Amino acid sequence: MNQTPNRKQLIYLIRKVLLSEWDPLFVGSNPKLADEYDDYIDQILQVFEGPRSPDLDKIVECFQRIEEELGVHSEKNTLERVAKKLKNLFSLGTPAT
Q1: Which of 3, 18, 42, 81 has a beta carbon 3.0–4.6 Å from 37's, enabling a disulfide?
Q2: Residue 2, pLDDT score
């Protein structure tokens, strides 16, 4: 039986996706930089707030804004793949408190 992840678990899972699937700064292989994208997790969580799951375009737009701040650019298909992974994480349900 799947349990709904709490916020701490969800942040850990998001961080894992960011470092392994997205990682535009190529820091994922350095354990000392595992928190490199943590400042952006709240922005990602905000996209998923509300009763309905956001569409992929909205998630991709969030990543495009983040990348603009970072001064990097990923291919749209990369951002769509990451968006799908995150959407799957959130399909487990709203994080438990």
Answers
A1: 18
A2: 53
